[in-house]
Amino acid sequence: xxxxxxxxxxxxxxxxxxxxxxxxxxxxxxxxxxxxxxxxxxxxxxxxxxxxxxxxxxxxxxxxxxxxxxxxxxxxxxxxxxxxxxxxxxxxxxxx
Length: 96
What we know:
alpha+beta; 1 helix
């Protein structure tokens, strides 16, 4: 039992107490060639915007492989929980 005034900083002092990280929900949309055409939309819960961006870029790369049926993806965007677009990358930004 900890003494008063002492704060447990991790679960090492008391295994029943675990440090939790705040996770935020982001929506990743893969966009097609038509304006506002959403080919794929997924929601992810991650600890940072950078993690959401990495996931979006992986999804975008998979959506653009030649073996995929349908039109190739033109862009990907990440929308935060408040509905703001926080990341956007088009195929032209990739250097195609």
